[in-house]
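Predict structure. Chain length: 370.
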Amino acid sequence: MHLKNLHLVHFKNRDQADLEFVDGINCFVGNNGVGKTNLLDSIYYLAFCKSFFNPIDSQNIQYDEGFFVIEGTFDRNEKDEKIYCGFKKGDKKQFKRNKKNYDRFSDHIGFLPLVMVSPADTELVYDGSEVRRKFVDGVISQFNSSYLDNLLKYNKAVSQRNALLKKMGEEQRWDASSVEVWNMQLLQYGQPIYEARREFLDEFIPIFQQYYNLIGNESEEVSLVYKSRLHEASFEDLLQQSEPKDARAQYTTVGVHKDDLKFEIKGHPLKKFGSQGQQKSFLIALKLAQFDFMKMKKGIKPLLLLDDIFDKLDKNRVKALMSLVSEHHFGQVFVTDANKTRIQELFEDIDTALRIFEVQPNETKLITEK
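Prediction complete.
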């Protein structure tokens, strides 16, 4: 699968853009702040119906304009797929495949598998467990549609149960039968979520460790550890045992919405004991493993978007990474970098189709092709 062309109108800082790409490596170079990352984000929009960085559609419209449009033509299994995303202030977002509107945006998720590597990924290391759960959920949802449905229904049930707990707390009463109704909902949707996460990580972790060894240092032992209370007891027992605590807290204190994925290096938290280079290598390995896993499950090579990834990586790690992504194993790749000379030198001796675009405030022009 690859993106053949991209058309933008009033998206973020881009007034308009019409670009054609190769089924190989496509690079955007230019000064910081000119909009290189915005071009990657527009591609992400076409795969996930939303921005990687800002989920509020109205804030992705170019300043002083009333709408944005993103259109792209993808070659998927040797068939053209035309994807359209349009948003106008005051209206609902439109998302179309071959001129036909989607009834639910969730029906599109996974149709165009894509992996984004960004400096924003550091939140996976430094932020709370919710961010890491979203990563796991995002990967599984791209190949398992029932998982996404279960997740949406589970989150709704948690919200409803929390509202009930708060109301009962305010009224200083306990309604066991009403709580049980929502417990059954949590069990129905939460148990399959837990099982899917456990199964996914059993397959995913060895792939991740393999990639870290390729771009990092084999002596740096790294691990991903799935933390869940459901390892200890059945979900039903945990819910019953937590009822007194839930009543005091007035929210649901146990469940798959409390799971976490711990990042470790040499048995210690990556956040505290990993250098900046090790953390970046860890995150890149995580995303390359995501690529491999998606490719295996979907039978299609995902698009790989690499946004400003060279900072804080030494030359050896950069060279190893570029050698990896230049292999035909990875398919179409998009790269951004502020250093034009570095990009040209990195890909000078690599035998793959290449286009380098220079991004300027008012235009994006092709400067290198091979």
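Summary: The longest strand covers residues 2-11.
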